[in-house]
Amino acid sequence: MSPSDAAAKLEQDAVTEQAIDLLRRAACYLERLPAVPATRELAKELSDFVDSPRVRASARATCARADAASAKYANVVAASGLILFQVVVEGNALYLKAPPIGGYLDDLGRMRTLHEGARFQLETTPSDFVPWHLDLVIQPPLDAIMHPLRPGRSQAPSGGE
Question: Radius of gyration (Cα) for the chain, nearest Å?
């Protein structure tokens, strides 16, 4: 998709989002009017349309396209040409990946690079960029990892001990 096509699609998405918001506000307005069968029916039709799975899926796709358009990525490459790290910044989220490249010493070297600090020069994502970060498994919060429940204890509050 060319940059002008992408810009046109984002503009079309913005107009669609505004139209759906207008329909939502119109349904809310109609629901506040005196109870007339025709008015109630139209309000219900508008609400059903706006809340339909198809419209919600379209809204999610619109958000995903907007996020993807604003995403930036960077690679840290070793002198040998191997990619040591890949990062993607999307909105307020940063995704870091260390592709598998070898054994223990390679991993130790990469950890040393991270410890010393690595500079990531962010660029806009190319059209052929594969968004690997969207397939990540959400990890539990760090405090749950650092302070797991001790054996014999449960998360349920005690009844009155």
Answer: 25
Question: What DSSP string runs through 87-103?
Answer: EEEETTEEEEE----SS
On whether the CB atoms of residues 65 and 10 are closer than 8 A, the answer is yes
Q: Which residues pair with 94 in a beta bridge?
A: 89
Instruction: With 0.85 as the threshold, say if the pTM is over it.
Output: no
Taking 70 as the pLDDT cut, the residues of the chain under it are 1-7, 102-106, 128-161
| Residues contacting residue 87 through CB under 8 Å, at least 6 positions apart | 73, 74, 75, 94, 95, 96, 97, 120, 122
pLDDT above 90 covers a percentage of the chain that reads 9
Rounded Cα gap, residues 54 and 112, in angstroms:
48
β-sheet with 72-77: strand ranges across? 93-97, 83-90, 72-77, 123-124
81-104 b/e (C-beta count within 10 Å ≥ 16 → b): eeebbbbbbbeeeebeebeeeeee
Q: What is the spatial distance between Cα 122 and Cα 141, in angstroms, rounded to a whole number?
A: 27
